[in-house]
Amino acid sequence: MSIERFFLLDPYNDNHLNMLSSFEKNNNLKGIVDSIKNIRSIPKEKYLDKRKTEIIKEDIIFTEKEGKITDCCFVQIEEDRGWCNIFPYDITNKSKKRKLPLLASEYAFSNSKVEEVNITVLPEDINMQNNLIEKGFICLGDNNGRIMYLKDREEKENSQRMIS
Fold it and tell me: Beta-carbon neighbour count of residue 73 at 10 Å?
């Protein structure tokens, strides 16, 4: 039995790029791989040095099972303002209960000074919306044709205490 694994995309990892290319093609997406190829045009050392000083860190987080990306999110973290935006990529299978946006929010809370996490989803992704509400996210309504959900660190800690 194979397990699903959580990864932060390494733009210089050929295996990650190949899996991302397949994910993009299988879900009728465009531009993700092109943006990674843009990053790869910079030497890796220069890219890593630049990352250390960036005010806004942008990453792609994904889950992988059996050599294929099962879900993928774009994440923006601005630590000095204490916020994180998570944008799940549109996938063709909307009936699937997507865990990755929630894992990405945990990643943001655990690995940075983020106080608020916003997850923006498509209006037709009802399963994701229900899952976010179930996990304590507050719906902020429509934002440019997408639905925005918010959870702050205090709410996260309160909901964890209730579970314990």
Answer: 21
Query: Contact 141/147 with Cβ under 8 angstroms?
Result: yes
What mean pLDDT do residues 75-88 have? 93
The Cα diameter of the chain in Å comes to 48
Question: What gap in Å lies between CA 83 and CA 80, rounded to an integer?
Answer: 8
DSSP 139-158: EEEEETTEEEEEEEHHHHHH
97-137 per-position pLDDT tens digit: 888 999 999 999 988 789 999 999 999 888 899 999 999 99
Do 114 and 59 form a contact (C-beta atoms < 8 A)? no
- What the block records as the tokens of 29 is 């997406």
DSSP states of 91-140: -S-TTS---HHHHHHHHHHHHS--SEEEEEE-TT-HHHHHHHHHTTPEEE
Distance of CA 153 to the CA centre of its chain: 17
CA atoms of 115 and 2, how far apart (whole Å): 34
Q: Within 10 Å of residue 116's Cβ, how many Cβ atoms?
A: 18
The Cα 101–Cα 91 span in angstroms is: 13
CA distance 164 to 162: 6
